[in-house]
Amino acid sequence: MLLEQHNIINQPRHIAIIMDGNGRWANNRGKMRIFGHKAGLESAKRAVNFAIKHRFNALTLYAFSSENWNRPKQEVSDLMELFLYSLNHTIHSLQKNNVRLKIIGDISQFNLRLQKYIKKTEQLTHKNNGLNLNIAANYGGRWDIIQGVKKIVDKVQKGSLYPEQINESIFCKLISMNELMPVDLVIRTGGEYRISNFLLWQIAYSELFFTDVLWPDFNHDIFSSAISSFLKRKRRFGHIEQTVM
Ligand code: IPE
Ligand code: IPE
Ligand code: MG
């Protein structure tokens, strides 16, 4: 409701979310952490529906960081199972809603079955031109920058790029989400005020919104509050506000 009151021009086009707090949500209920992750998956679906409804151009969800491998073996394998399950069970709804799915991150570390499903879902939804849904899985902002640097080095070695030609716009095209709009807004749930190696380069000028709400409790009202907060911000990008002389 709140969103409709604002001019569509000011709406954020690309939103990224650090979906944190599943474990604590389960813990508060005396349940195993996987119970929180399953509730987190439902919450992610709600967020996707919100993004579709409000016609955002892109939604990027942080699902598994490159550091999350350090969790207990059982939790990691439960998360992989859940990832596989969600790919299998959401394909129909992605197609129905014209959503283009992309996984960002180093998928070569996942088991072959999961890699196969990732590629299959990406291929099937490739031509959709509604919401761009990016799932960051085995993603790290530092990894993303390094893999971009490796591509630059490769081009220089092959002679297709001179070192003096390297600039921000060339580099931008070699990191994740190169073809999309810049990230306008980053939301983090779960009460922590940090980026945890999520997008680094891509959020240089994003607005940030933090909430104590644990991810499984994230809903359309809180999403609307984040957007309302964004709409009140003055994005100056280093300039000064226009003043009347
Ligand atoms: C975020 O919730 C989901 C993943 C990192 C996979 P957490 O699992 O980090 O939940 P908390 O922070 O322990 O509550
Ligand atoms: C960030 O949450 C990663 C994801 C939401 C996937 P973490 O729970 O892993 O972050 P830290 O460890 O508290 O910084
Ligand atoms: Mg956490």
UniProtKB/TrEMBL annotation:
Keywords: Cell shape, Cell wall biogenesis/degradation, Magnesium, Metal-binding, Peptidoglycan synthesis, Transferase
Residues annotated as catalytic: D20, N68
GO BP, sorted A to Z: cell wall organization; peptidoglycan biosynthetic process; polyprenol biosynthetic process; regulation of cell shape
Annotated CDD domains: Cis_IPPS
Magnesium recorded as keyword: yes
Signal sequence extent: none
Record's keyword annotation contains Metal-binding: yes
NCBIfam families associated with the record: uppS (TIGR00055)
Function summary: Catalyzes the sequential condensation of isopentenyl diphosphate (IPP) with (2E,6E)-farnesyl diphosphate (E,E-FPP) to yield (2Z,6Z,10Z,14Z,18Z,22Z,26Z,30Z,34E,38E)-undecaprenyl diphosphate (di-trans,octa-cis-UPP). UPP is the precursor of glycosyl carrier lipid in the biosynthesis of bacterial cell wall polysaccharide components such as peptidoglycan and lipopolysaccharide.
Entry protein name: Ditrans,polycis-undecaprenyl-diphosphate synthase ((2E,6E)-farnesyl-diphosphate specific)
